[in-house]
Amino acid sequence: MAEQLEILSAEAHRNLAMHRFAGQHPHMVQIVLPEVEAAASCCPVFLAKSPETGRFALVALFGFAPGEVLVEGADTGSAAFLPLDLQRQGFFTSDDNIAVDIAHPRFAQGASIALFDETGSPTIAMRAVQRAIGTLMGSAGQTEQFIAALVQGKLVEPVDISLSFDDGQTVRLDGLYSVSGEALSAIDDNEMIRLFRNGSLQAAFAIRASLRQVGILARRRNDRITQPSLQSWA
Asked: What is the dihedral of CA 133, 138, 144, 150, to 10 degrees?
């Protein structure tokens, strides 16, 4: 369905309501630097190259294939980590304004969460959307700088992960990168202090440590092979 973007306003959208979320939770979501440590607490965090630009982005992995959600609570929107990009579903920026895509499934029939109250002020739910958009926009440059520092410091390495399951399937994770533990340990003291002070070191270690989440998700997938699961959070 084509986008139908409109500048959001209390007057024009007083009666517009939204679902908490819409559609199926994606198996991979792009995140920004302030989200890394929270994401790493429950799912693997990688760097992935954009097929269009060839540039790295930070991504959180919720499953191993499209349509698969393995992080506990993610399929109902109640996981320990909820990406900002999903919190702002259906909302975008247009210059200094927030725009709303009224054709987005989040605003489909049956939506009951108001965007504005009777006084025309944003509701609590709408303020959460505004904060999500603000953080995403405000962290874009910081995230790019972090990724550039990892690349320039030769801290990025490709990951080669192949998983086998009890149903005979083998899943390979291709095109993903992580932070090299060996390269991290070789950083000189001055660079270590610099990275620590700007918050990059903590995020780099969190990305590296999040690799252990791959095994956790793999065990969860194996446990669910013969158990149908609900994968909708509309």
From this structure: -110
Determine, yes or no, domain membership for 192: yes
Q: Which H/E stretch holds residue 37?
A: helix 36-40
For residue range 153-206, list pLDDT tens digits in order. Answer: 899 999 999 999 988 899 999 899 999 999 888 888 888 888 888 778 899 999
Strand, coil or helix: what is 51? coil
Does residue 230 lie within any of the structural domains?
A: no
DSSP assignment of 179-201 equals: E-HHHHHT--HHHHHHHHHTTHH
* Residue 101 · residue 90 · CB < 8 Å: yes
Tell me whether residue 234 is in a domain.
no
> Is residue 85 within 8 Å of 198, Cβ to Cβ?
no
Amino acid identity for residue 228 in this structure: P
Residue 80 lies in a domain: yes
SS3 177: strand
Contact predicate 198/32, CB 8 Å: no
CB 27 within 8 A of CB 65: yes
Q: What is the pLDDT of residue 230?
A: 45
**Domain that residue 85 falls in:** 5-224
pTM of the model: 0.88
Radius of gyration of the chain (CA): 20
What SS3 class is residue 120?
A: coil
Domains of the chain: total: 1
Cα–Cα distance for residue pair 231/21, rounded to 1 Å: 13
Residue type, 193: I
